[in-house]
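Question: does this match?
>
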Amino acid sequence: MRDIISWPLAEVRREQKHATSESPKPVAIDRNHASDLKQLFDVYDKRGRGDIPIFYLARRMAELHDLDEDDLLAIFEGAGQEPRDLVDADTFVELTKFLLAGDPGMKNVLDLLKTRTAEKH
């Protein structure tokens, strides 16, 4: 089994047990959106290694979707990720669930990202 640094799911689950009602909970993502997110991750992972550092993920997302790289890094850091932490496709889906928490309009962003990615390929 590969040894990678990824989203600390055990810590997240532990914190969820002790979370207040104000703490955001991860949103449910249906299988189609999860599959779409994994396909997006494959676009970000140019080398095809299966994992990429957060800083590179933010850079690729900024390049492909006209987003601000520094804002993306701040969002990921707020979710407990350091710029050099590695993320794989499954972890990217889990991170996205937390990024979408409390913002139902973000589903539209997922659809937009998918559309923009399809247009550039």
In short: Residues 13 and 19 are 10 Å apart (CA to CA). The radius of gyration is 14 Å. Helices lie at 9-17, 31-44, 54-65, 69-78, 89-99, 106-120.
